[in-house]
Design brief:
The protein is α/β, with parallel strands linked by helices. The chain has two domains: 202 residues, 3-Layer(aba) Sandwich (Aminopeptidase); 63 residues, OB fold (Dihydrolipoamide Acetyltransferase, E2P), CATH 2.40.50. It has six helices and 17 strands. The strands form three sheets. Strands 1, 2, 3, 4, 5, 6, 7, 8 and 9 form a nine-stranded mixed sheet that branches. A four-stranded antiparallel sheet has the order 10-17-15-12, with no helix packed on it. Strands 14-13-11-16 form a four-stranded antiparallel sheet, with no helix packed on it. A hairpin with a 2-residue loop joins strand 13 and strand 14. The protein binds zinc ion (ZN). The site of zinc ion (ZN) has 5 residues, from strand 4. Keywords: Hydrolase, Metal-binding, Zinc. This is Succinate dehydrogenase.
């Protein structure tokens, strides 16, 4: 038998890069659980370059492409079985290819005290930290250490790597980054800032000397998504990352105003396009209600 290899890229393995000396916390950084989320991949690549320059107390494990088949396919889900991997953790060693992959990733990240999972929100989105900060004070602290300006409470849908990791006693959250969809596009400045944010968190944990400056942090409640009530043309009039007050114009849908239903921060605004019923026009998160 001869094996004919026509492309170097393997789609049934993933690479783990490790940095540090092991005398401190273990931090896992994962990207491309959804393979088309390339701003996340690029942030992980930049982070690995930066970590090569640093003396690290502890260990940082970076998995820059968690889902190689969906990366190669430029799709959110794996072409093997169409399963959204970030709904099925901890996976299943006896299951479909994506179930097995999730299980392998789960095992690979069990030794980490902290887990930062990098994702993308798509074109028209902005960077934010997403976590269960209300349930876990340590997540609030980690989000503050990242010093990205927007922190949003997650709805905590089960099967996500960070949610299941929190359930398992780890300190885990997501950084959502702009772009990714469509087609795996990269927002370069967002990837660079994400890399700096992770370095800031490592500094907070006493793992690196470098301490790039960050932003003050605001905490928000869960996102409300405004969706198209029927097919029609959406034209954006606002930009993700901006604050809004109730009544602000976010865009027009079939010529009618789409307004902010409450004050908060805009997390996404659809690019101009003909939308179908149920598709997202904009996302808004209200400031955290005072305790
Ligand atoms: Zn994702």
């Amino acid at each position: 038998m001869r094996e004919v290899i026509f492309e170097q890229t393997s789609v049934t393995n993933f690479t783990v890069q490790e940095f540090g000396n092991g005398n401190g916390p273990i931090v896992a950084v994962t990207a491309a659980v959804h393979g088309d989320e390339q701003t996340a991949i690029h942030a992980a690549m930049l982070l690995m370059k930066e970590l090569e320059q640093q003396t690290i107390n502890g260990r940082v494990k970076v998995i820059p492409v968690c889902n190689p088949a969906s990366f190669r396919n430029r799709t959110r889900v794996s072409p093997f079985d169409g399963i959204d991997m970030n709904r099925i953790f901890p996976g299943n060693a006896e299951g479909s290819p994506t179930m097995q992959l999730a299980h392998a990733l789960w095992l690979e990240t069990r030794d980490a005290e902290y887990l930062i999972d990098l994702h993308c929100i798509g074109a028209g989105g902005t960077t934010y930290t997403l976590g269960l900060y209300k349930e876990y004070p340590e997540i609030r602290e980690l989000a503050e250490a990242l010093s990205l300006p927007i922190v949003i409470q997650s709805s905590g849908v089960r099967g996500q790597l960070f949610v299941e990791s929190c359930q398992a006693g780890q300190k885990a959250l997501i950084i959502e980054l702009p772009a990714g969809q469509p087609g795996g596009i990269i927002d370069i400045p967002a990837a660079e800032e994400c890399c700096r944010a992770i370095i800031r968190s490592l500094h907070h944990l006493g793992m690196v000397d470098a301490s790039p400056s960050g932003s003050s942090v605001s905490f928000y409640d869960e996102i409300t998504t405004l969706t198209a009530p029927h097919p029609g043309l959406f034209i954006p009039k606002a930009t993700a990352g901006e604050s809004c007050v109730e009544g602000d114009l976010l865009g027009t849908f079939e010529g009618n105003s789409v307004i902010a239903p409450f004050s908060g921060v805009i997390t996404t605004v659809s690019p101009p396009r003909y939308c179908f019923a149920g598709e997202s026009l904009a996302g808004i998160a209200p400031l955290e209600k005072s305790q």
